[in-house]
Amino acid sequence: MKHQLKVLNSLKRQKEVFEPINEGTVGLYVCGPTVYSDVHLGNCRTFVSFDVIYRYLKYLGYKVRYVRNITDVGHLVGDVDSGAEDKISEKARTEQLEPMEVVQRYMNGFHEMMTIFNTEKPDIEPRATGHIVEQIEMVQEILDNGYAYEKNGSVYFNTTKFAEDYPYGELSGRKIDELLAESRDDLKNQDEKNHPSDFAIWMKASPTHLMRWNSPWSVGFPGWHLECSVMSTKYLGKHFDIHGGGNDLKFPHHENEIAQNYGSCKCAPAKYWLHTNMLLMNGKKMSKSVDPETGIANSITPVELFTGDNPNITKGYSPMAIRFFMLQSHYASTLDLSDDALLAAEKGYRKLMEANKSLQKLNHAGKGSAGDLDQEINKLIDLAHEEMSDDFSTPRAIGRLFELSAKVNGLKNGQLKMSDIQATTLALLKETFTDFIYTIFGLKDENEGGDNNGTLDGLMNLIIDMRKTAREEKNWGTSDKIRDALKEAGIQVKDGKDGSEWSLV
Ligand code: AMP
Ligand code: ZN
Description:
With 505 residues, this protein is an alpha/beta fold. It has three domains: 23-276, 3-Layer(aba) Sandwich (Rossmann fold); 327-444, no CATH class; 453-504, no CATH class. It has helices spanning 41-59, 87-95, 99-116, 132-144, 159-165, 176-183, 224-236, 250-265, 302-307, 319-327, 339-361, 372-389, 394-413, 423-440, 449-472, 476-488, and strands at 6-9, 14-17, 25-30, 63-68, 148-151, 154-157, 199-204, 220-222, 240-246, 270-276, 279-281, 284-285, 335-337, 491-496, 499-504. The strands form five sheets. Strands 4-3-9-10 form a four-stranded parallel beta sheet, with helices on both faces. Strand 1 (6-9) and strand 2 form a beta hairpin. Helix 2 (87-95) packs across helix 3 (99-116), helix 4 packs across helix 8 (250-265) and helix 10 packs across helix 11 (339-361). The longest helix has 24 residues, at 449-472. Residues 31, 33-34, 42-43, 45-46, 71, 245-246, 248-249, 276, 278-279 line the site of adenosine monophosphate.
């Protein structure tokens, strides 16, 4: 029944048989969010994809350590080395908050959203600011190994030297020779760096920079790429099994992570690199700017997707219908969000859940000896597992479950005879549906008591939170819009002096 797991290793650009470094265990590191704004749907796509990968590895029997970081320092707005500001610092300054208030606010929102989408929590969720000491140590190691140099209190990674020893650009497919040759002309613009492709691993803070720590080189802060090199090494070792993230991170983030790991310990961090592809909407990149022809921005937030309050969609969609929609595309393919696709996914999700409900109610009636129907069902079950083992192909596995659903419906409505199926086949079929739907795909029944309340609570906490932010910003239009949309959905919001409360009406 179990099939060999194959994964698309971005490093080799090909599917490979997955063989963990240590038998029976898997170390999985995924680049987490930068918590300076509300989590967007693209982020959710990536984290739901890795949630399924994590779940499936565990389902296969591996003991998995899943590390997903929180970036709370170092990710700059714009060009890393042009004196740009930290994303969190910028938000803190413009909103007159402590940087850690910004971090806490958006980290809470991120966690709520992950709960709404029913993703499992990682085993370790380290924060960059909690690992400054280790980051300083790694900078020192890289300096000691001759792969970095210090200039005026900042430390830069020496990409020219690294490229002599290692195929820099291997992951993103960038031809480093070309890159180095091309960028040489720009040298005059790069005051501190020896070479334009060098990147900062420690930056001296300007006097106004809010997030700053003492180091041997200056009072400053670590470069963005450094945290992931440090935290993956600390929790998974110098060489671990899987490193994941969205493919927008291949360059420079992941490429530079590899450079730093090599620069500090002369070894490549991950054996397999897995990259999710981007979320699009209506076939195009999401963009907040308004199309002059339609007057509509090609953009939607998760909350708008739940409430339906966005001109790109005709109605709101439940978190599980959206999760199902995400699973209908392979993680390494782009995911194109549109109203039609969501409507179809919603139908598909309900169909699958209904089929499962019917299946679990079927009782074995006849004696039944192994026949054609058993063979067909067992074959489809085996194929469902084979699809999942083939680089976590959720869309193809869902396809097999739908083929099995047709059998279930046939058994339910009498087109197929219960006496033609063996008790063991029926039991296996029930187990397969339960395993795939709940354990592997991480779906939930939305229309049944208990679970639904948890989802609704989480969802409402998030919406109330967002409305609170709108009210604090005196954005009365948005605040009223949220209240009215909820009212239409049968939820009443009451504003009191201790905040807002909601109830079903
Ligand atoms: P960020 O918060 O921008 O650092 O991103 C957090 C994670 O979401 C990273 O793994 C990104 O690669 C991923 N990500 C960002 N934008 C998208 C998108 N449009 N589609 C899918 N994944 C994305
Ligand atoms: Zn990272």
